[in-house]
Amino acid sequence: MQAEWSPESWKNKPEAQRVAYEDEALLAQATTELRSMPPLVTSWEVEKLKGFVAEAQDGKRFLLQGGDCAETLADCRPSVITNKLKILLQMSLVLVHGGKTPVIRVGRFAGQYAKPRSSPTETVDGVTLPSYFGDLVNHAAFDGDSRRADPRALIRGYTRAALTLNFIRSLTAGGFADLHHPEYWDMAFLSRADLNPKLREDYTRMSRDLSSALRFMEALGETSIDDLTRVEFFTSHEGLSLHYESAQTRRVPRREGFYDLTTHMPWVGERTRDIDGAHVEFFRGVANTVGVKVGPSAKPDDVAALVKVLNPQNEPGKIVLIARMGASKVTEALPPIVSRVTESKARVLWVTDPMHGNTISLASGIKTRNFDDILAEIESSFDVHKNMGTRLGGVHFELTGDDVTECLGGGISEADLDKNYASVCDPRLNYRQALEMAFLIARRMSQ
Ligand code: PEP
Ligand code: CO
pTM value? Predict the structure, then answer.
């Protein structure tokens, strides 16, 4: 029997990745302020996403989740936001075309400001300071003031998340995301000379095909295409700062339970999914769809137990298991977990994150990832699920709509990496790499 849950009950549990705030009074002031502010999302939207995820669990939809490893407050700029929306829209179009199923678009944005770290401190030239835990906690610059955990950062993060979301909502409610006009989402890169001409041609042909198919169906008076043409975005981020999440968690009129209203779909990270820990305690009590990252060291029994704790009623649409095994491990590590969870009859959506198990450090110290490893993990995940009679229901990427040079392959070699390595955390796919990846997944889905 579980003890009683409340938005604060996590405070009685061991908290992995705990942030040491020096000023408790200031922290209390910040969370009180956050508690009084309007929610960023509504329970209607949360329930709608849950309904879509439930349909994805039945094989009727596919999830595309993507965005920065770490958003920064400074990147709350129109061009950065629109480029991210555009690449996600373009990728989703390619996937709709290849998979012949609607795609649920979930951004890693409007709140992806907190980062787990492998070490609580960082040492440079003999000086040791707290690690950078993301803009929701402290600053990236390496000096004592910047690295001090600042409770006011919770408010700054909330504010930028709200500004980001406001812009996204306006864009998608207006003409920007109208599927009849995919040319609105074309980016400068699409016409750039160094873009692989085949990629440009494939994309242009496919988007033209899709809009003419839409017009044809509309001419026939087909009404059910509304679902395909209305473009919606949902938000997600790692629910790492429980101060932030719990301050925006509340009851809403005429519904049961508590909603975490910082985002539609929070997820629990690989480093915070301890079944006895604070994060699992918190997320077992919210009504949102919850993602759980699962790495290669996860034990099948533990994953099944975790799913049970997070979703004791086996509610449809509630749990998304995001496997991030690494290309070399996925074929060994994933099947026992899929098998155990399937045997438990738990309803989950299986998603692959082909990024976090494939990070490598070069001799220069730069962190990168190979396009081919990322693709290989996706391919192997499709194979595993096919062999086991389950279904890969989605993909989770670290990507950006900008022209960065962070991952290798798709036109980027080792010598190019320092041209525009802009990530403050993990390396992301750039525009061309992301679009190319979408075509390769679509090809696999259409087989
Ligand atoms: C992330 O998604 O950026 C991350 C830290 O992932 P994981 O928890 O899977 O390591
Ligand atoms: Co990351």
Answer: 0.95
pLDDT digit string, tens, across residues 374-408:
999 999 999 999 999 999 999 999 999 988 999 99
Q: Which protein residues have a CB closer than 5 Å to ligand 2 (ion)? A: 69, 426
In 3-state terms, what secondary structure has residue 392? strand
For ligand 2, the distance from its centroid to the CA atom of residue 70, given in whole angstroms, is 7
Collapsing DSSP states into helix, strand and coil, what is residue 74? Answer: helix
Written in H, E and C, the secondary structure of 283-329 is HCCECCCEEEEECCCCCHHHHHHHHHHHCCCCCCCCEEEEECCCCCC
- For residues 138 and 394, give the distance between their C-alpha atoms in angstroms, rounded to a whole number: 32
Opening angle at CA 410, ends 405 and 411, nearest 5 = 65
Neighbours of 221 (CB within 10 A): 6
CATH number of 9-177+229-446: 3.20.20.70
List the one residue out of 421, 297, 319, 317 whose CA is nearest residue 365. 421
pLDDT digits (tens, 9 = 90+) for 54-63: 999 999 999 9
Q: Amino acid letter at 412?
A: I
User: Looking at ligand 1, which residue's alpha carbon is closest to its atom 3?
Assistant: 69
Our CA angle for 204, 206, 210, nearest 5°, is 120
CA of 282 to the centre of ligand 1 (A): 18
